[in-house]
Amino acid sequence: MFIMAINQPLRGNKKLMQAIVKKLFFILIGGAFICTSMVVNAAFANTQEITRAVQNFLYQQASRSTSANSEIAIEVFAPSAQFGACENPEPFFPSANQEAAGRVSVGVRCGKNGEQVRYVQAQISLLSRYLVPVDDIRSGTLITAAMLTSAKGDTGRMRNQPITRFEDLVGLVVRRNLRAGQPIYEQMVQAPEIIARGDTVRILAQGTGFQIEREGTAVDSGGLNDTIRIRIGNREMLEAKIIGPGRVVVIN
Fold first, then answer.
1. Helix H segments across 64-86?
2. In angstroms, rounded to a whole number, what is the distance separating the alpha carbons of residues 184 and 31?
3. 141, 133, 135: which is closest to 172 by C-alpha?
4. What is the model's pLDDT at position 1?
5. How far is CA 78 from the centre of its chain?
6. pLDDT computed for residue 159 by the predictor
7. Are residues 186 and 197 in the same domain?
8. How many domains does the chain fold into?
9. What b-and-e string marks burial along 56-87, b requiring 16 or more CB atoms within 10 Å of the CB?
């Protein structure tokens, strides 16, 4: 009987200890989960702050070089886990000549005095409308409005800006074959030829208080505002800009 009296309290204490240990285990697990959640939430909030700062910076930069009709789309690639905390993020372009278009690298100064610098990648898309041929156009063809239509694309990926206005294309001549749907750039077209090689032209030379006209022979062909070479006599050569049919002005 005495032994039984001793064993019963022991068994009761053992169950109590197991219950306490189990409760402590769940408390510790819960605390760890809460701490982890706080760290994750802080990191997420920091990433959002950096992303917003970079987006605002890139939007301002891209707006300076685009027309009012362009749409600007910016994708900032999330910083890696090694990026670390960044207080008061201040984005900047590492290169002064960086264009705000296409894939770009953005520096981010962190801290009150910007003593730490991080880098993130972003993609800038400049969605604009521009003119393209409805059908293929052969070299030497005079462009009419009926030959053109508008298309929309990311001009930020293009080396040059395509022509967007009908008045800048209609009446010009195609320098080389154009494909249907192809963006048209300034170097692909030219003004119609109004002076042909060998033509006799009137040369205008002017300065302060004087104006002289004389004749010469065109060495090159060209259209309005083109620069061509003119021969005067047998040896003298000069460059002049075409200002009308058979008329040029000397380039000083």
1. none
2. 64
3. 141
4. 39
5. 19
6. 81
7. no
8. 2
9. ebbeebbeeebeeebebebebeebeeebeebe
